[in-house]
Amino acid sequence: MSPNIHKALDRLHYRYPSLLVDAVTEHEPGRRLVAVKNVTVNEDFFQGHFPGTPVMPGVLMIETLTQVATLLLFSGETGEGGAYLRAVENAKFRRQVVPGDSVRLEVELARRRGPVARARGLAYVGEHIVAEADLVLGLAPPAADAASGRIHPTAIIAPGAEIGEGTAIGPYVTIGPNVKLGRDCVIESGAVIEGWTEIGDGTRVFPYASIGLIPQDLKFKGEETRLKIGARNLFREFVTIHRGTAGGGGVTTIGDDNVFMAYAHVAHDCHVGNHTIFGNGATLGGHVSVEDYATISAFSGIHQFCRVGRYAFIGGFSVVTKDALPYAKTVGNRARIYGLNTIGLARRGFSAELLQKLKKTYRYLLTSKLNTSRALEKIERDPALRCPEVQYLVDFIRQSRRGVILRRPVRKLEEMVED
Q: What pLDDT digit, counting tens, does each position of 26-40 carry?
């Protein structure tokens, strides 16, 4: 007998007196399984089913075939899985099953598609068929794998939640019915994941983070809105991420490889790119866009509908009420611009030549005494500045709806930041 059968028998969702499979004698994985049920006079159901002339109930014959079908469907799976009976078709009971009978149960898989499988079941005593039926089974996701140690027994996982292979869920975690977790995630103690939320592979959620709950928007009336999170993200303690609103597009999105330090907050309808870093307590208002490789330092707040450009650096305790320019350092309450983020860009692999082009571009914007429109014209006409990064910066400014932060600090403040 396949060693997977022993594991399947152990994790079958039945125990005495409901377990109706005694042994497995044949197994063709994914195709056919033969099991045995030895019917004894001390079966629990015989006490009230025709006392004096005990007969095994027909409904329990169907239940026995269903348990064998479950073993066939999940004996080769690494997760626990499970099945529930959705329908019985073409059932026939040809002979009585009585104490002392050894019932041979043969189940063949007819079709498996998505969350539904069909199987043909036959029950024999000797060479005689005693019962037969076509079974329609609903397949439960491997979300309740507490016995394997990946999911703590105190975790509350609603029916319908989808848990990827290799994902570990700690004590007192709550996961809602519409949540989809990818493979190899780690959800630590006390975290809550709710709503129509998708989380990609390899993501880690630390204790007491709250992800996918309803937005803090008084116009929200309980509509179905979503949160989509990519792969390999890190959500530290007490991070809060809210799903979208109908008026804001209905979805909050987060890309891949982002770090959200403790108490960071992403409000409804925000869109966060890839490889960003949010410091402790960093906060996004609703409808904010944060592009790739941006850093928002501790306790900074970004006003609703603002944008934070690629590779932007927002200093600690800043209040950003306009669009924060890409590649630049933006610091303060209210935030001012402190020029190119030279050190950060060099660490990200920007060449010396490209840094010089960006520096010259920012000189046009900040120190040339040209207004913004004329500075952009100068930048676009300068052949030495033609590259995708400079063009992206120009387009970012021209597409701004709230305006961009081009206000420079006074000299004293600039010297303090440099120090």
A: 988 888 999 999 988
